[in-house]
Amino acid sequence: MFLAATTAGDRVRANPGGQAFCPSCMADLIPKCGEIKVWHWAHRTDDCDPWSEPESQWHIDWKTRFGLQNCEVVMGPHRADVVARDGLVIELQHSHISPEEIAERQRFYRRMIWVVDAGEFREHVDLRLASIRTDPYRQQPTTYRSFRWRWPRPTHARFTSPLFWDFGDGTMLNVRKIHPETPCGGWGYLWTKPQFVRRFAVHVDELGDALEDGATA
Ligand SMILES: [Zn+2]
Fold this sequence. Notes:
single chain; mainly beta; 2 domains; nine-stranded mixed β-sheet; two-stranded antiparallel ribbon; 13 strands; elongated; disordered C terminus; binds zinc ion
C-alpha cells in the first residue's frame, strides 16, 4: 500500500517511524522504508485486500498522476488503484494475474479499465501496419497499429474491460483485439501517457506535473 490513513483524516505516504492505519480494515500499518523496494505500508499479516499487488515504482508513478485523493480508494473489501473521472476505476497491473481474477475484478468494479505494465514484454511486441483512423473511444484521428506478439501471455485475451499496455517509453497501446491463436497478433490505438491522463483524470487543471512529458493530445 502506498497511502495509509491518519486519525486526522489524511492519507499519508510511508515514512520512517510513521504511524498510520489501513483505510479499509483499520489495522495499524508498518512503514517499510528500506533501500531496495519503494517505500510502502505493510499490514502485520496478509494484506486485507487479496487483490493487492506489491507496490512498485511503476504503480506509484501512475497513481501520483491522478492525485493522491483518487488513489487506493476503498470500495467494499477492495481498494481501487485509481478512481478516475466519472467514477471509472483504473487498475494498474504489473504482475501476472489469472483469468479468474481478471473476471472477478471486472465483475466487481464494472466500469473499469486496465493499465498493464508492458515493459517486460515490449520487445516481443512487433508493431506493424500504421495508419490514422478515427478511434471510436477518443472520437478523434489516432494512430492505429496492428501487431504480432511473440511469446504472448494468453491471459491478455481474457480482458474484456478496456486494456492499455504501458510500454514504459511514454507510449501506450489501447489493445482492442488480440487473436490468441498462433501466430498471436492483434491491433489497437496508440496513446501517449499525457493523453491518457488528460482523458481520465478528475481534475486536469491540477495536473501540471503529470502532463510534463510534453506530448500533445
Ligand atoms: Zn487493511
